[in-house]
């Protein structure tokens, strides 16, 4: 318990995301003082073990940078201190027409200083924390394609002015083949005043994943710190991230991502105690740690939060460790899914993903990408996710495809995966089952798709477990032997045992359940086979065969599927929504 391992409880269920939607959710935007706690959901947090706290370990310490933003260059300027700005009446049209340059209020971004001050939103106690004075150095890697000028500058200024200079090895700006002229010589010229800023102009569009890799290839720092190109790093943001990596090279440290309003450019803090999670089919989201868990475990605002997945854009990782992990799958295109990939990889191959509450970075959340996708956007993201599913999800990839069943129908070409599969073997990574049980046990999407009595439409009788086999009997809601689950892994399950298919003409039996055994799988209620929707079809046979009640109403057998036969139609007592 006190060993610094995960502790957690399982709380109530909430509705999961709609199938097929592959969007990211923005974090709950809460008012500065607490706000509503959001959905109560199960959680695991990792509180540092007694005695292992980095801040208290021996060594020389140096105090975090104090707030250098309290005396800004131009205190009267609009947007100063992160305050909201209004567009003047006579500029409304202009502001409106410039919105699409970045899918946020570009007019206002240009209006406010590139080095504006923002409020120190860190929880109380952060500014008193100490860090080691031998922290590793970092290379900041910021990729962009057609980023808005003032926003890109503000991102860079915030890094340079709110980080201890000796910790910044360099700032690598990776220009992912932008089309805007100002991102060429004009940008080079502007940045030449900062010796630490390097610009890599890519000769073709790489997409953010391979653009980050191009930056990582030339990075000289001990740690890689990735950032989006429309951020504002807050006071003391960097030291706590590097402190974690120094403590263990397998720790991947993320700041709390705060919100820069796309409408009025105000800098807003977010509710504390949020974890990065996903729902099927691998949609990223934020989830509040339930109040009772916070109280029971006495979790403090400054405590580090372990996350099943990271948002993706903002994190520090030991450079050698990143390369040992095989970086990102370079086969991921343009945008999306790489946060799932790196998260699963880190956890399953021995690392940890953490949110560090004393590190805070604002990010402009936009409703749409302001740049073009070389190919279809949805398809690109789906293909990326399918690559991740194929490499990391084991038998649970059925849950992914089950919640995005159209992907199976699409005949998606995910490309070659040999290297990724080899890598997973070489690193001796744990199973996805382990990940679900140990890192994300409160994943809300239930494994069970349907449950209860399994009634035959023609005979109105129910399947019953009888010793080592199954039979058909009058239905009895109180009979536990008649209770079955149909799972997303497509098993017909009764406790530990599963109904096992037989060859056509044969009778089904019982077998110990195993989600990896394809010979145990049945298709039921699948949108992919609408004609067999109510049937229970054997999956591994080339010719579809279905579970059937015989005319004598006593026994079960497997027979060639007949989509109109009521003897082959079955209904469960309960069906659960996705
Ligand atoms: O082809 C591209 N080349 C690029 O260089 C596409 C994008 N980019 C750049 C882009 O200019 C930006 O700086 O890559 C960065 C990320 O792209 P965004 O800002 O359009 O992405 P996002 O903020 O909508 O999405 C989040 O998910 C992405 C999934 O691939 C990345 O992981 C982003 O880094 C990530 N952003 C965050 O985690 C910030 C918090 C958002 C949330 C939740
Ligand atoms: Mn972004």
Automatic annotation (TrEMBL):
Needed co-factor(s): Mn(2+)
InterPro entries named among the record's database cross-references: GalNAc-T (IPR045885), Glyco_trans_2-like (IPR001173), Nucleotide-diphossugar_trans (IPR029044), Ricin_B-like_lectins (IPR035992), Ricin_B_lectin (IPR000772)
Superkingdom of the organism of origin: Eukaryota
Cross-referenced CDD domains: pp-GalNAc-T (cd02510)
Pathway terms, separated by semicolons: Protein modification; protein glycosylation
Compartment(s) where it occurs, according to its Swiss-Prot or TrEMBL record: Golgi apparatus membrane
Keyword Cytoplasm (UniProt): no
Domain Ricin B lectin: 449-573
Keyword field: Disulfide bond, Glycosyltransferase, Golgi apparatus, Lectin, Manganese, Membrane, Signal-anchor, Transferase, Transmembrane, Transmembrane helix
Protein family per UniProt: Belongs to the glycosyltransferase 2 family. GalNAc-T subfamily.
Protein name: Polypeptide N-acetylgalactosaminyltransferase
